Amino acid sequence: MKDVLIVGAGPAGLTAGLYAARAGLDTLLVEKQMPGGQAAQTNIIENFPGFENGIGGPELAMAMEAQAQRAGVQVLYEGAEEIDCAGRRVRTQSGWHAAAALILALGAQPRRLGVPGEEALLGRGVGFCATCDGALYRGRPVAVIGGGNSAAEEALYLAGIGCEVTLVHRRDSLRAEQAVARRALENPRITPLWNSRVASFAGEEKLEALVLDDGRRIPVDAAFVAVGRTPDTALVRGQVDMDAQGFIVAGEDCRTSMPGVFVVGDARTKALRQVVTAAADGAMAASQCHKA
Predict the structure, then answer these.
(1) Are 273 and 132 a contacting pair, CB within 8 Å?
(2) Annotated catalytic residue 132
(3) N or C: which end of the chain has fewer CB within 10 A?
(4) Structure confidence by residue, pLDDT tens digits, 118-131
(5) 229 pLDDT band (50/70/90 cuts)?
(6) Catalytic residue (one of 3, 133, 266, 281)
């Protein structure tokens, strides 16, 4: 039996592993694909401290993995097929793995629109995080798709760096909190398009325009889809407390409703989901494991 078992090798899971191993805890991390999670799919990350000119997402992910392994983390590249929170154990292709403490770094996936051009132009104008990639389009025409808090805040961020923002929403008013919505709608750089849906993303080598369902073509250099996230928490549903969207409920100490089980990163209920906050979660959860 290990001291700490971590599911997921995104920035949260890798940081948890680093801190746990450095504290002398025997640590196993299981991951279904590759290190880095969503960060590894970002061409360049410009808001992670210490990298003045930014760092490639894959480069950061590989550096985090190497650092964790140097500290003593054992990384097993097998996907979790079953998670038993009460037993603090995980079944992968090679069998069951158990530990005194279980850290869930399950992550979350941005919801896709599922329209033509979305996947083909991902990372070439189509994105899901303006805070991550928006600075690459400073002062240029961009679009945000969505109507909730995330969409309004993304639009405000982009407007704040000089972009002319088209805010595309399928309804006739924003679903965002009143104060956030008011700020977005009062910003002269943000133009809402009500009762509109994106039918496709147009472009060959890079995004050139949005095509709306009524046939209108909106020229933009970038488009950020902000229609929510889907947490990868299906394997622990019914075992730990979750909110209505499926995010695992935990405070800043990252403790779930199940003793000995922690949640870190994008799968946790939190106000901001970024690489830096994921890393902070990982450090916190590992420190709690060490205290336990």
Answers:
(1) no
(2) yes
(3) N
(4) 999 998 999 998 87
(5) confident
(6) 133
